[in-house]
Amino acid sequence: MTGAEGDLGHTIWLILHLVLFAYWLGGDIGVFYSTRMILNRSNTPDQRFMASRIMMWIDLLPRLCLSMMLTVGGILSEYVGVSHPPWQYAMIVVLGPVWFTVLLIMHFRHNASFMPILTKLDLWFRWFLIAAIVVSVWWSVSTGRLDEAPWLAPKLIVFAFMVLCGVMIRIFLPGFIAGVRALSQGSITQEQDDAMRRSIYRVRPWVFAIWAGLIIEAFLGIFKPGAPEAAATMGNLIHGAHAFVAPLLG
């Protein structure tokens, strides 16, 4: 699979990678704004519940983008010299579509009898994935497997951290979900409303951490620290910034 960065296949996968990044971050911002509408007590319970329905649909997009990131990133890593044995490459290719499908089932069949089991399996899978990424990065760095692309190690660790942030959000979210259920019935008690607010306040730091992680991921992907071309890229950026600022300074 290794190929030149000008290869059409590389270009297609890179565009998909950028689209996943953009829709993940953009969708998360939309979800964040929706929570403000839901918590606004000046809105009627029906208005707040409608905002929660919109939020749930928007939230599906970042979760789907998350599910495909490792598959797309793993395929792209082949183009920068990180080869995978056939069994590992097959797992990378299958991971995204399978996880993507599970998330769609969880969204559209949330009232199904099997949903509690599927939800637990998804949570356990995320814990497993975090551990697997950390162990994989440790092994790859210690064996020199990432010597051609050293920036992939921190990129994977940041991704594992973002998955952890998602798990923590799920842990702190029950109070908010209970409040939404109350709103769906047309009313909400003061106690339920306060619990909803506390839940969101506990979740927000983890949301902000995901945003920071995405920005760090973008930086690592663009500048590729440790790669031979990294210095040239940074030099071009500095030169461009100087060319832009110099006329302004007279």
* Structural class computed from helices and strand pairing: mainly alpha
Strand portion: under 5%
The residue fraction in helices comes out at over 70%
Q: Please mark out the parts with pLDDT under 50 across 5 or more consecutive residues, or reply none.
A: none
Put simply, the count of helices is: 8
N-C termini distance: 50 Å
- Number of DSSP-assigned strands: 0
Assign an overall shape: elongated
- Please tell me the total number of domains: 1
Instruction: Give the rounded overall mean pLDDT.
Output: 89
Rg calc: 21 Å
Please summarize the sheet with the most strands: none
What is the H/E order?
Answer: HHHHHHHH
Description of the molecule:
The protein is mainly α and 250 residues long. It has one domain. The chain has eight helices and no strands. Helix 1 packs antiparallel against helix 7 and helix 2 packs across helix 6 (174-184). It is elongated. The model has no long low-confidence stretch (mean pLDDT 89).
Observed structural traits:
250 residues; mainly alpha; 8 helices
Helix-strand blueprint:
Blueprint: H1 8-39, H2 45-78, H3 86-108, H4 115-142, H5 152-172, H6 174-184, H7 190-223, H8 228-248
Q: Quick gist of this model?
A:
This protein is an all-alpha fold.
